[in-house]
Amino acid sequence: MAAAASGSALEVLLKKVAAQPLASGQNRNFQTPNKPLRIGLISDLNSSYGSTSYGPTVERGVNLLLQQKPDLVICAGDMVAGQKTSLTDRQLAAMWEGFETFVRRPLETAGIPLLPAMGNHDASSQQSQGRWIYARERQQASRFWSKHQDAVPSGLTEADIFPFQYAWHGPGLFLVVMDASSSTVSSAQRQWLTRTLNAPQRQQDDLCLVVGHLPLTAFSQGRARAGECIHDAASLAAELRQADVDLVISGHHHAWYPAEALGLRLLSLGAMGSGPRRLLGSSSASPASLTLLDWSAADQSISERTLNLNSFSEMQTDQLPTTIVAPGFAETRRRHTQWQRPQRG
Length: 345
Ligand SMILES: [Fe+2]
Hints:
- This protein is α/β, with parallel strands linked by helices.
- It has 7 helices and 17 strands.
- It has one domain: Metallo-dependent phosphatases (Purple Acid Phosphatase, chain A, domain 2, 4-Layer Sandwich).
- About 25% of the residues lie in helices and about 20% in strands.
- The chain is globular.
- Bound molecules: fe (ii) ion (FE2).
């Protein structure tokens, strides 16, 4: 699919890209009037449990973002390496400090805000007998992101339990982040989603993105089983369809696939870090990647480019299976990465 993993010249070039510091608070008033919006989409950065550092593809990805200068970056989860109850609070805090050092702060310094969704390794919502199994991880994630909440550009709404679920309204964009850090998206959260997607801040011409870590259906080998996708996805998908959501973005399956399923447009992001996985029906692993989405509100068009972080080449959809079929999961079809937002009325 991609060229050999050389890219050394480009890699050196990217490493030289320096973050341009902004005056304190400069990125809080997010404004891009009449110009296309570029959104960086990343996911699944974490290394092994407890790790406070990141692999080379994460470093390349951050450098690529600094070079490409998207207006914002959305991370679909798994920023740190938790989901292990033996990790101490000190270890959990150290992991988030590692994320701050290697990922969040360099982007913020360059004026690129990062909006997170929680992954199972960040703050799993899995419960046992009505209690969070990873309660301390959720506390640490909450503490870290609350500390950095004021770095999110103005437009945050429905953010009572930021960073777990919230909405953000920017120019021409309505983003809703849900807590899909385990397979359970509770009925309370589903009601919140329906209410939030109909919030008065959402404008008719806004691109509406919903982001959650686990996907609505199965994409990759080893992940086509209960616990790795949202449970009772059909009813949630019906709610998202009813609310005219334009694109549902997920991580966790470590394999890039622009999809149509359940009457929705989906995007499964590749992992930015380690652990590449094969798509169902594919014999090759989906390499580390990130996606750049350009949104033109003026002509209501979207263009997605996904870049291989080993070769720096653009990944091509014709190399992907045309359909993905897994027993017990919604059938998925490959879709185009250049598309027009449908007229809503
Ligand atoms: Fe995950």
